[in-house]
Design goal:
heterodimer; A: 558 residues; mainly alpha; Cytochrome C Oxidase, Chain A; 0% strand; disordered C terminus; B: 265 residues; alpha/beta; Immunoglobulin-like; 6-stranded mixed sheet; 5-stranded mixed sheet; elongated; binds protoporphyrin IX containing FE; binds copper (II) ion
Chain lengths: 558, 265
């Protein structure tokens, strides 16, 4: 069969000139699997840096006075922490890393639609990240938060803010290139015979996410360019002393940044939908409703941004519209959660690290979603906006949600990436301290916000000292939790049990090849998997054959 | 069925009995707390329900040592899926309508430009955006109370309160108990936010865009005023105090500080 246009690119000279072995990972490789792992490792390095910054924040907050860092340094640390975690860790990893690794497998292709664009998109990230971080040492980093609201971002030192803008523009550009590539791959490189409604759920999640990326990221880019004009050329787009309007910036910023939260979490939804059926040995419950709810979230996600602006200049009708629209996002989101629980129900669940992290995600995200719906109610939000309550809400979502899913996915796909198994006991231990530490760190912050602690402060009312120290203790546990994880990852490469092609007996196409897979993904023709979740007693024979005869699944019809 | 009933009862109990909120010191704070209780109850029911389902499934359907085989071949169930689309939709609709009602009772739907303002010093044709707070026009004309106007200026890193009545300029807000206060706020530099947790109210103070916040304090005491929008290095220190006092005490404060004897600031 000659259906895979991009396979030429893999097989012709540029690819064979690439270095082999581990050096590949430092090269301008065009192999989607190499690029995926580049995203993952690079993202993880930035996660460690962002985590170190978070630790600095939590150390400062163990006492009610500003005593650990200078106040302007605190604001720089806070800005870098937010920007790194969002733009250099979660977005690149849930999209770039797993997207690049998995999507070509899932559509039955040998590579992404535009391999060179793909490599360019990845290689924009390290320089952007290094630039952002080095700004701290050279000029002082930006100090207006990850939201960079003017006029604060116009009046704080310009050099750091401009470097911040350039980095975010590069990262946004990388994300747009990635989005275009995913859309093209999913729509155009599908193996003949594979229908859209047979794709694994992660493809649908990436399809929806990429639409959001392509529609909203350019708005952020335009906004930041105007902001940079205000800073360097003293134009007055957002500068009230020159007749500009600061509220317009907020609208434009959140028009991107609310969808951005779905850019961080929709792919995570997709990953969980891949992981749970494999370890429960049960079909994904409600495939069709899952697809429609992703699409509903995409559409609704574009019209809820002003819920971040309830206390700024927002007239009553606008407040109400955005309250209703935001509340309704909970409906498609809820469907997905009920469907996952129904996927667990009646399964044969292996209680391994991947499952534990996925279930931890469900629990954390439900709490974050509930506080989200509460925050969507204008009268409720008017008290807790810009307080630690909001900090708690979004960490339940982005850490308790996306980061838990990233860990779950690493436990799930590590055998495919490396051919080695991870140590399960270490993995469960990692889950335990992460889960306890996370909840200890963020649950008390709800109370802090309700009772009067605003966010982004280096000093606070002494009555909050004890609860802040509890929270910092949780953060300490979270910091410690990376040690067993890293140890597990590193030692398993050398000492891990050999995984074999399909250690979990998965049915999706990435399991129907060797671990790690060959450059062409499959040595033979690409398999046609029309039932990615065909588990269960009824289809028992199907699985038996799959496991005894790995190279040719019965679902392959060649 | 029994489990669901217990869950609902438990959730309601938690919602009604666990108090996570600070003191309440304004007319709209009890309205807020009512909303909070309802949301907290619903949230507790949903959260505990999901938590229970997940933990129960993990225990009941776990793969025991040496067990082989697969789960049931259940790919979906339309009535169930419709059910859990409909229930959240109804809950969310209820929450939305209910919070609209709360919002209205807090005075959120009133047209800010017409509320009884007398800030003659400010340009009237300017568009003004508002926070909420029970409430100036209707309630007060009923009670024959005229609101106390205060002009608020925020700057890095302080609030300044100007009382047109008596031309007082102060860094500490004094208000009499029971009388509505109507604040018109504007910032000199970056965005700040005026927040009094005990009043359950917050409104950004924006440069180039006046905003309004109305409230009626109903409990004597001193409460913190907190800046809630990142405004620079000393953002965490940008705090002040609102002193709610008996009308007599307030009047004497007012006359003591009137005109020439502007206070500290
Ligand atoms: C059930 C769905 C959700 C609802 C109804 C919801 C609602 C809200 C609302 C109303 C706010 C504004 C709070 C305020 O600043 O006063 C907010 C903040 C936030 N939400 Fe959510 N949310 C939901 C899910 C998510 C998801 C899925 C994510 C990310 C993956 C997320 C991430 C955030 C972040 C990062 C902020 C804070 C932004 C900032 O001010 O820096 N939320 N959410
Ligand atoms: Cu949002
Ligand atoms: Cu301030």
């Amino acid at each position: 069969m000659t259906f895979v246009p991009s396979s030429e690119i893999n097989n012709n000279s540029p690819q064979s000139l690439q270095p082999k072995g581990w050096l590949r990972y430092f090269s301008f490789s065009l192999d989607h699997k190499v690029i995926g792992l580049q995203y993952l490792v690079c993202g993880f390095v930035f996660y460690l840096i962002g985590g170190a910054l978070a630790s600095a924040i939590r150390i400062e907050l163990t006492s009610p006075i500003s005593d650990f860092m200078a106040r302007d340094v605190y604001n720089q640390v806070l800005t870098l922490h937010g920007t790194i975690m969002i733009f250099l860790w979660i977005v690149p990893v849930v999209n770039g890393a797993f997207g690049n690794y998995l999507i070509p497998f899932y559509v039955g292709a040998r590579d992404m639609a535009f391999p060179r664009l793909n490599a360019v998109a990845f290689w924009m990230i390290p320089p952007a990240g290094l630039m952002l971080i080095s700004s701290y040492f050279i000029t002082g980093a930006a100090q207006s938060g990850w939201t960079a609201y003017p006029p604060l971002s116009i009046t704080t030192p310009a050099a750091g803010q401009i470097i911040w803008i350039i980095s975010v523009l590069l990262l946004g550009g990388s994300s747009i290139f990635g989005g275009i590539n995913f859309l093209a791959t999913i729509l155009k490189l599908r193996r003949p015979g594979l229908k859209l409604m047979q794709l694994p759920m992660y493809c649908w999640a990436m399809f929806g996410t990429s639409i959001l990326v392509v529609l909203s990221t350019p708005v952020l880019a335009g906004t930041l360019i105007l902001l940079s004009f205000d800073i360097v050329a003293h134009t007055g787009f957002f500068n009230p002393s020159l007749g500009g309007n600061v509220i317009v910036y907020q609208h434009l910023f959140w028009f991107y940044s609310h969808p951005a939260v779905y850019i961080m979490v929709l792919p995570a939804f997709g990953l969980v939908s891949e992981i749970l059926p494999v370890h429960c040995k049960k079909p994904l419950f409600g495939y069709t409703t899952m697809v429609y709810s992703i699409m509903a979230i995409v559409v609704l996600g574009l019209v809820v941004w002003a819920h971040h602006m309830f206390t700024s200049g927002t007239p009553p009708w606008m407040r109400l519209f955005f309250t209703i629209a935001t509340s309704f996002i909970a409906v498609p989101t809820g469907i997905k959660f009920f469907n996952w629980v129904a996927t667990l129900w009646g399964g044969k669940i292996s209680l391994n690290s991947a499952v534990l992290f996925s279930c931890g995600f469900i629990i954390n995200f439900v709490l974050g979603g509930i506080t989200g719906v509460a925050l969507a109610q204008v009268p409720f939000d008017i008290h807790v906006h810009d307080t630690y309550f909001v900090v708690a809400h979004f960490h339940y979502i982005v850490y308790g949600g996306s980061v838990f899913v990233i860990f779950s996915s690493i436990y799930h796909w590590y055998p495919k990436f490396t051919g080695k198994m991870l140590n399960e006991n270490l993995g469960r231990f990692h889950f335990l301290i992460t889960f306890v530490g996370f909840n200890l760190c963020f649950a008390p912050q709800h109370w802090l916000g309700l009772n009067g602690m605003p966010r982004r402060v280096a000093e606070y009312d002494p009555q909050f000292t004890f609860v802040n120290q509890l929270s910092s203790l949780g953060a300490l546990l979270m910091a410690i939790s990376t040690i067993p994880f890293l140890w597990n990852i590193i030692q398993s490469i050398f000492k891990g049990e050999v995984a074999g092609d399909n250690p979990w007996e998965g049915l999706t196409p990435e399991w129907l090849t060797s671990s790690p897979p060959p450059v062409e993904n499959w040595n033979g023709p690409a398999p046609l998997v029309t039932e990615p979740y065909g588990y269960g007693a009824v289809k028992k024979e199907a699985l038996d054959e799959t496991t005894t005869n790995k190279t040719e699944s019965p679902k392959q019809t060649e | 069925m029994l489990a669901v009933a217990c869950l609902i009862a438990g959730g309601l109990w938690i919602g009604l009995h666990v108090n996570l909120l600070p003191d309440s010191a304004s007319v709209n704070a009890p309205i807020y707390d009512e909303l909070f209780k309802v949301l907290f109850s619903i949230g507790a029911i949903l959260f505990l329900g999901m938590l229970g389902l997940v933990i129960y499934s993990l225990i009941r359907f776990r793969r025991r040592d040496g067990e082989t085989g697969e789960g049931i071949a259940l790919e979906g169930n339309l009535p169930l899926e419709i059910l859990w689309t409909a229930i959240p939709a109804v809950v969310v609709l209820f929450v939305g309508l209910y919070s609209y009602d709360i919002y209205e009772r807090m005075g959120g739907m009133e047209n800010m430009n017409q509320s009884s303002h007398d800030h003659s010093s400010m340009k009237t044709e300017q568009r003004i955006w508002g926070g909420i707070g029970a409430s100036t026009s209707q309630l007060d004309s009923q009670r024959g109370l005229n609101p106390l106007p205060v002009e608020v200026t925020a700057m890095q890193f302080a609030f300044l309160f100007h009382y047109p009545q008596g031309d007082i300029l102060t860094g500490e807000l004094h208000v009499p108990i029971g009388r509505p206060v109507s604040m018109k706020m504007e910032s000199n530099d970056v965005i700040h936010a005026f927040w009094v947790p005990e009043f359950r109210l917050k409104q950004d103070v924006i440069p180039g865009q006046p905003t309004i916040l109305n409230f009626t304090p109903n409990k004597v005491g001193k409460y913190p005023i907190i800046c809630a929008e990142l405004c620079g290095p000393y953002h965490g220190g940008m705090r002040s105090t609102v002193v709610v006092e008996e009308p007599d005490a307030f009047d004497s404060w007012l006359s003591k500080n009137s005109k020439q004897t502007a206070s500290e600031t």
